[in-house]
Amino acid sequence: MVKAVAAVFVRKVWSGIQSRMLSAQADRVMENGEWEERWQEGRIGFHQPQVHKMLETNIDKVLAGRAHISFFFPLCGKAVDMKWLADMGHSVVGVELAEKAIQQFFEENNMTYSEEPVPSIPGAKVYRNPERNISLYQCDIYKFSSSVQGQFGAIWDRGSLVAINPRDREKYAALIISLMAKDCRYLLDTLLYNPELYKGPPFFVPDEQVHSLFGSSCDIERLLSVDALTDRQRSWGLDYFTENVHLITPKSN
Ligand SMILES: C[S@@+](CC[C@H](N)C(=O)[O-])C[C@H]1O[C@@H](n2cnc3c(N)ncnc32)[C@H](O)[C@@H]1O
Q1: Is the pLDDT of residue 1 over 90?
Q2: Domains of the chain from N-terminus onward
Q3: What is the largest distance, in Å, between two alpha-carbon atoms of the chain?
Q4: What is the per-residue pLDDT for 253?
Q5: Residue 240 to residues 1, 46, 178: CA-CA distances in angstroms?
Q6: Which atom of ligand 1 is nearest to the CA of 35?
Q7: What pTM was computed for the model?
Q8: Which reaction equation describes what this protein catalyses (predicted)?
Q9: How close is the Cα of 24 to the center of ligand 1, in Å?
């Protein structure tokens, strides 16, 4: 009895702390133009020149023995992970606002590309390298849907859920769920730090919120939790910075 009361108390205190932490960034808005400016000015400290460790470490869990998977990269930037997966024979679809990011991806990886409008998304363009089966859509993620390229067998979400504006998380989660094929394996990278010390992006996304966003239709397994504090985050004023990786799969009916 005492134990049960103590557990309820701890849960209540914890949930109070979480809501205070979430409210610290709830109203932060990064306009689309600000992202494009970052690309124009080369302020892309989030870009990593090598394949992301969390993807590399967990790739077997994402593939689960499957070959020729269709991978989706929301907010893809110029992640070299896309080439890494395409070289293994998977197909890749990415969505990115900044034309500069897409052009740099193909140029820096020595790939030619075609460029065409997307009839179903006014103003959008798709850049393709057919040899490698990579298609990158230049548009706002919220204009993308399963009617453009169907659903996906895998999703790699790094710098995506943590980069969209906090007020758009439900809309983003609904879109991601609609893009998941029945056998989809969605690898999600989230970050924990004190949001009262840094305004983001990247934004703080606690595990509880991952559960509230995806838990009703998906199973969620936290695969890893690592201390990822470096001088970059120390320069933001942070004293802890944890990276969590989750494997999210649609619940079977
Ligand atoms: C933090 S970066 C991460 C890029 C990439 N996932 C990586 O790991 O390197 C976020 C990217 O999302 C793009 N972006 C931001 N908001 C977007 C939106 N609403 N729709 C599409 N792309 C967006 C930005 O231009 C930026 O390249």
Answers
A1: no
A2: 2-250 (3.40.50.150)
A3: 67
A4: 60
A5: 35, 18, 34
A6: 25
A7: 0.94
A8: S-adenosyl-L-methionine + a thiopurine = S-adenosyl-L-homocysteine + a thiopurine S-methylether
A9: 22
